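Weekly modeling sync, notes
Attendees: S.R. (lead), two postdocs, one rotation student

Agenda item 3: backlog of single-chain predictions. S.R. asked that every request posted to the team notebook include the full sequence so nobody has to chase files. The rotation student volunteered to paste the first one in as an example of the format we agreed on. Action items at the bottom.

Example entry:
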Amino acid sequence: MAQKKKKRKKKSGIQPQKVKQAQHKNQFLKKLYHVLSLLGCGDLYHQISREEKESFYLLHFRSIRVEAHKNQNISHRLVKFFNWFVNHYIKREINKIELYQDGPKISFYDYLNILYTFYVYDELIESERFDTIKEVRRRLREILDFKEILGQANKILDTVLIFGALYRSNIMSAFYWFNLDVRLLDDEDQSFIRLNLHREPVEVRSIKFNGIYRKVYKLAFPLGNAIKKLTIDARTMKMHPENPDKVWDLYIQGHALQRLYERLDHEDSYEVQMDLLFSLRKPRVHIMDHKKRMIEYRIMDDKKVGYLVSEVVDDIVVIRTFLLLTNSHTPEGEKLKEILNTTKTDMKYWAIDRMSTFIASDINKNEALKSKFIEAGCGDLFDINYSSRELMGQNIEQADAMVKYFGLDDEEEGTMVRRHDSTKERLNDGTMAREQ
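Predicted structure, as returned to the notebook:
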């Protein structure tokens, strides 16, 4: 006779939860000891009673929570992403806070858990509820400038929020931004920082260019706790000297974004938009003609790789298109044309009107060729993210063929002797090079 199997009782979820809480508490106490030891207060840690440790554990700031602001139509999936993004980045070792000049450093996350708790609950710690923790707080006051450390922490958090917002914002649809709300002990007996997530649709206008109406998109920059529209003044635009303080809102045409994506083809679209907005925060303008101006486009606010061609239309400044440094009508492009005697066909054939060529090809390894681009003022094109060479999965070998094509191998005593008397002959030689 077959034996009846005994029904297994389902394990209660209470026990695993208690284990998890105990592990979390132990991790927190280890952090507390670590931070106090860095500051020469490790001896005091062992004098803290169990009850005080328990109370301080209940007070401490545990995380940063992102929630959609009320009446905001933001998907749960996006809120979940921002929660991961923010809490992941504040734990990174790169985000360090210096406790005092030339002193030890701790992560933003450890600062939030430990020192920010001491800072916020200053009065409560001074109450009768604590004894040794009060002495720890007094010792820390002698060592640390809590307001200066808070300033460092705010800068790190602002940076994380700006990059997070830029990562998900879209110039043609909506910008995201946050406002901060510090939550002390709540109904769950937890302290945390809450970030209210906002979504602001992009303002769109129709502007008439050459008899045709086209959409333009208002530009803004998400800060750590607000969104700021981007503007440019007459002094920066080098216009209206009689009214240098006149200010225009900045807009961009869809065509300009398309050219940005095409010519900066080594970057993802969000990186292109991010660098665009950073470039426009502190615009550097060059005069193109009596109407249009060229605003420098810089990668990570450092390396100049092109220009945003702009003009005043209907009392706003519109970015009409984007030119890489090597394109015609830029100072560097015109200089390059003089040096190499390039044509528009040359630009297209050798793809030197695209950023990826300067990353994925061997031009940067050929000093004869590279020096000509540097002479023309295009040196920054060789200094952009060489690590992406591997990411692009290719290494285009074209430098030797270009040297022959432009006659650089015939240079003697600093004078270039051209092999190519006409564009037709150059194209013939280029065809032969391709066939080989």
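Discussion: group reviewed the output briefly. The longest strand covers residues 191-201.
Action items: rotation student to repeat for the remaining queue; S.R. to check formatting next week.
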